[in-house]
Amino acid sequence: MNLKEIHIGKLIQIRTDEKKLDKDRICSYLKCTEDELERMYEAKSMSSELLLKWSKLLEYDFFRIYSQHLIFYSPPAVNYQKKGAVSKNPMPQFRKNIYTSEIIEFILDLISSGAKTKQQIITEYRIPKTTLYKWVEKYSSSEKKLISLQSIPADD
Question: What Gene3D superfamilies does the annotation carry (predicted)?
Fold first, then answer.
């Protein structure tokens, strides 16, 4: 999946096809006509309220696609606040980026295939060096264990 160019309508249509939902049920839930439904499938973007309804109906977090885009392609935030100062910002404050298993798998695939070096990943995706090396150590050792377990012949 290309996280740089997100076409949410196409992704919704793919998920709808996977779930094999009837158009009448979808139109009833979203309170729309079949023509409006087709326009949604063609839409590159849509309102967050409508996307939330789709997420509930299709049991899939479409917002996570945008979150992953932000992790990969947005510059890190600069924090000018002094240490110990209390923020008066009413917006929720998140402690750190959360890397999903899909992101970790994607990054490790880039390394194992030779498409990118560790240094390129650190530079391009701004993943901390220690985090990347922990992923490589953790997931490469679990793969080795799995391979070694699979190579042991079963007792008949």
Answer: Homeodomain-like
In 128-143, which positions are buried (b, 16+ CB within 10 angstroms) versus exposed (e)? Answer: eeeebeebeeebeeee
pLDDT in tens, the chain (156 residues): 667 788 999 999 999 999 999 999 999 999 999 999 999 999 999 999 999 999 999 999 998 888 888 877 776 655 555 555 556 667 666 655 567 777 888 889 889 899 999 999 888 888 888 888 988 888 876 554 444 434 444 443
8-62 CATH, one of 3.30.450, 1.10.260, 3.30.70, 3.10.420? 1.10.260
> What is the value of pTM for the model shown?
0.55
